[in-house]
Amino acid sequence: MTNYETYHHDVLVIGSGGAGLRAAIEASAAGVSVAVVCRSLLGKAHTVMAEGGVAAALGNVDDRDNWKVHFTDTLRGGQYLNNERMAELHAKESPDRVRELEAWGAVFDRTDDGRILQRNFGGHKYPRLAHVGDRTGLEMIRTLQDYTIHLGVDIYQEFTIVSLLKEGEKIVGAFGYDREKGLFKVFHAKAVIIATGGMGRIYRISSNSWDCTGSGISLAYHAGAELIDMEFVQFHPTGMVWPPSVRGLLITEGVRGEGGVLRNNAGRRFMFDDVPESYRAQTSTDEEEGWRYTQGDKNAKRPPELLTRDHVARCIMREIKEGRGSPHGGVYLDIAWIKEKIPNATEHIRRKLPSMYHQFKELAGVDITKEAMEVGPTTHYIMGGVKVDADSQMTSTPGLFAAGECAAGLHGANRLGGNSLSDLLVFGKRAGEYAAAYAKKTPAGKINEQEVQEIATAALAPFERGSSAEGENPFQIQSKLQDRMQDLVGIVRTGKELEAAIEHIVQFKEKISHVACSGNRGYNPGWHTALELTHMITVAEAIARAALQRKESRGGHYREDFPEKSDAFGKVNIAIKKDDKGDMTVTQVTKPKMRDDLQQIVNEMK
Ligand code: FAD
């Protein structure tokens, strides 16, 4: 019989990123007892790395902006696979969420007349991203964290949740351990909010922090919740490619928003070569007009470097593949060229992009005020995740809610930059509000002691196998999984490669039942990785199976064997669920018809 400590709360929030903290604030304000559990330290969640800004149609820089334009930009970017109700709520509510953050103490950059400054970003028709230099996430987390603590929310840092606990169909708590001593913990909760972020670390090259393994998506899946849109992974066009130790680290789209341009090894601005039909009317045809757009000329159209991320990433891949890349397998991103255009360009770049300046100077020895950066695509974001009700954020499992990057629906086939920070504010708040309301009307459930013991025994099994010669090394499995995902389920996919990926994943699933670790339970990375592998492999399988099912190319999902969009697939989302035998089922779910008033807005904005 394994010992564990127990905790009781009405609402348990898993994750202390923007989504988790915003949810905790709202739930706590509703008067229920709230806890946040996170496996990093408070303030270290991945949101802190967000750079470019938070999208909200405040209209401070261009008063033609409003929620309807933001709504249609989001749908166009998502190639119309978005949940339109979520896109509507997001566009309508994000301005209030940003203003509220300001009222709570966030210090955004300012316009000359003292309003929140907004910058250009890919796919957004008008300058829309409220920002704090290129450290927006840091300021957001600082503000949300201060307020969460002020409200008296209980915080459990360096605790990892391994499994959710159910009574019948409904959620009644969660099982985890503290990383410091490796002791088991059982949380009793009437409602649980998953806010565990993304999954970039299941790929070899990623902009994400170590924490982003997709564990919340997997926790929800194993608790019976449905997943959707898992095939849509965003490969950000501009990650560092050199030196190898920092490959994948992000270079914010803000660089292009400030006038940075992409060139191949012949110095050609190749983004003018391929502009999608749906964006032609909004895109400049000459370099001069593109530059004027970045400097706030309301009559100019945006440069092709600010097309959506999926498209820019594929154009970069084309240049590299066809031999026009940079020495280390990327292309060039040049902001230094603006010296030709503005006085004090060096100072301007350092003020607008301080983190980028330091990142390149310290990590690559490159002064971005003088030289171009070498960049290439990096795994960045997952549009798919846990399926939620648009208004309440409740999943298909009663009592289980999800918000932020681990939840799906808002972004469809491709997310616009800046729409994640607004997503987590809008839907984090909603998740907190509805989880608190659910907890108030739901009696506390009963946790099954036998289930807890079984989970604990399984969690300790890698130690039991520690001395066995046949024991599998968790780091090796993780590393191979990352390679297979990078090579076979990456930016360009084929049916054959996806089938091969699934075969590998099935073998990895077999291997994790032999995974072994040694040492004691305190701060044991081998053990942590052994436990995390189940989640990483579950998420990898869901991505590969959904990608195999979608026989077309759209947004973040590109199939070389089906390079065109298909009308039929344009009407369906791919859903993933665990069946009664424990197998992963994949189905096509027809999207409901768009509400007439929303359809009318889309038609008017075309
Ligand atoms: P996170 O911030 O990732 O937080 C997840 C939390 O869950 C963490 O506290 C983690 O410890 C915890 N957790 C995870 N699993 C477990 C577990 N099993 N048990 C316990 N705790 C767990 N988006 C924008 O809109 N604008 C930007 O400018 C922008 N810039 C970005 C820059 C970079 C470099 C990157 C990589 C992304 C950027 N994004 C941006 C995307 C955006 O930052 C993320 O999508 C967003 O911050 C995710 O927030 P979240 O609250 O959902 O999750």
UniProtKB/TrEMBL annotation:
Protein's name in the database: Fumarate reductase/succinate dehydrogenase flavoprotein subunit
Catalytic residues identified in the record: 309 (proton acceptor)
Key words of the record: FAD, Flavoprotein, Oxidoreductase
Cofactors, names only: FAD
Disordered: region residues: 279-303
Organism: Chryseolinea soli
Source superkingdom: Bacteria
NCBIfam families listed in its UniProt record: PRK07803.1
Record-linked InterPro entries: FAD-dep_OxRdtase_2_FAD-bd, FAD/NAD-bd_sf, Fum_R/Succ_DH_flav-like_C_sf, Fum_Rdtase/Succ_DH_flav-like_C, SdhA/FrdA/AprA, Succ_DH/fumarate_Rdtase_cat_sf
Gene Ontology MF: a single term: oxidoreductase activity
Residue ranges occupied by any FAD-dependent oxidoreductase 2 FAD-binding domain in the UniProt entry: 10-421
The Fumarate reductase/succinate dehydrogenase flavoprotein-like C-terminal domain, residue ranges: 479-588
